[in-house]
Design a protein that fits this description.
The chain has 113 residues and is mainly alpha-helical. Helix content is 70%, strand content 0%. It has helices at residues 7-19, 25-38, 44-54, 62-75, 81-93, 99-112.
């Protein structure tokens, strides 16, 4: 059961399949569902990791990026500089148009300079 996985373990599982370009629809669907129900448990690094891990998975899942993007916008003040760069990079790699997220990342980045 994926519900017993910590956010880190869930992210690692998705990463292992994505890094090998192994598209396992049932696993990604279950991971997406688990992320949706537990999005509040993911910190800045966890959100970045999930976005980065889903980006190369070869699956068009705009809804997962919408979910991650909305959660990230709410938590951007807690993002370190590397997290800001990581979330922007993940969305760009997945060709996700997330203007609200990118505008918020730009604003937060300027404040951290």
């Amino acid at each position: 059961k994926l519900s017993s996985f910590s956010p880190q373990n869930l992210s690692n599982l998705v990463w292992s399949f994505a890094s090998l370009r192994q598209s396992h629809e049932a696993l990604f669907e279950a991971a997406q569902s688990e992320l949706s129900s537990r999005i509040g448990e993911f910190d800045a690094q966890g959100l970045c990791m999930m976005a980065s891990n889903f980006a190369p998975a070869g699956m068009k899942r705009p809804e997962i990026f919408e979910l991650i993007g909305e959660a990230a916008v709410k938590k951007l003040e807690s993002f370190k500089a590397r997290d800001l760069a990581s979330i922007a990079s993940a969305f760009a790699s997945a060709s996700q148009q997330a203007s609200r997220l990118f505008n918020a990342v730009a604003s937060e980045s300027q404040q951290k300079l």
